Every structure is written in C-alpha cells, then in structure tokens.
What we know:
Elements: E1 2-4, E2 10-13, H1 16-25, E3 29-34, E4 41-45, H2 47-63, E5 69-74, H3 80-95, E6 99-105, H4 114-127, E7 132-134, E8 139-140, E9 144-151, H5 155-168
Parallel strand pairs: 1-4, 5-6
Antiparallel strand pairs: 1-2, 3-4, 6-9, 7-9, 8-9
Amino acid sequence: MSVIDEDGEQLGNLLIAKALQIAQERELDLVMVAPNTEPPVCRLLDYGKYRYEQIKKDKKGHKSVKGLLREVRLRPKIEEHDLQAKIKKTRELLAEGNKVKITVRFRGREIVYPELGWQVLKRVAEALKDEAVATSQPSKDARNIALTLAPVATKKSQEANRDAETEDT
C-alpha cells in the first residue's frame, strides 16, 4: 500500500506491518484514505484531531447557509411587549437573509375568535413593512394562521442596481 506521512510526503509502497510500525513510532494512526485505488492509499495522522477538525468544518458550513425558512410562533392573545420582542427577532432573521414564517397558533377555545389572529398578523406585517414583503397571502389551516415574509432588497443593492442602470444608458 502507498503511505503518506503527516506532512503530506510520500513514503512509498510499504507493507502493512511496516506502515503500522512507523505509525506507532510517530504516535500517529494509520488511516486508509483511498481503499479502492491500486495500490490502496494510507495516511499517517492523529485521527482524533482529524475528526475534531472535520466536525468543526461541518458546523461552520451549516452556519453559513442563507435563505432558510425560519418560523416565529405567536399566540392570538400576545401582550404588546412580547409581540415587540418577536418582531425584533423577526427583523434579525430577515437581516440575515432568511425567509420568516409568522404563525399564529390557536389553543382550546381561542379558535372561536380567528379575528384576533388576523389582527396580530396584520400588526406584525405593518411593523415589518419596510424590511419585508409577504410572499403569499396569509393562509389558515386547522389551528394556525401563517404568513411568509421575505427580506426586501437592501438599500445598498438597490443603489447598486440604479447605478448600473444609469451607466448602461
């Protein structure tokens, strides 16, 4: 099998026993990175450190995802301060570039008064009219009323578009 050391240098084709001996001398692990090639390729590395860095890299990749659909849940009898806190959180999500689904959930006998839910959604939409646009009309299903908001293009991108148009003419 072909063996690569921790610095990326080729050690050449070695027997398994010899490769394992070198790994033990250097206090590293022998990891097969390409078992389907001819000859198979193994690498000397600290496997624990390697796994830690892989997990860290995967987590970093997940954080950078933009444009996700995030959800903010409300109740029809929400107090004013609580509503303002939810609106603030929605603004933060929209500023990150995410779409936000505002859901008003009804529990128990609250379902008898759907107009309270519509009023809450209307207040949220009114508060966010400068930062977001509704992608569809509010929809009502069994015990929820939902409205999806998408971020409005930022002023900088609008100015860039306007400058590009003036340069073209």
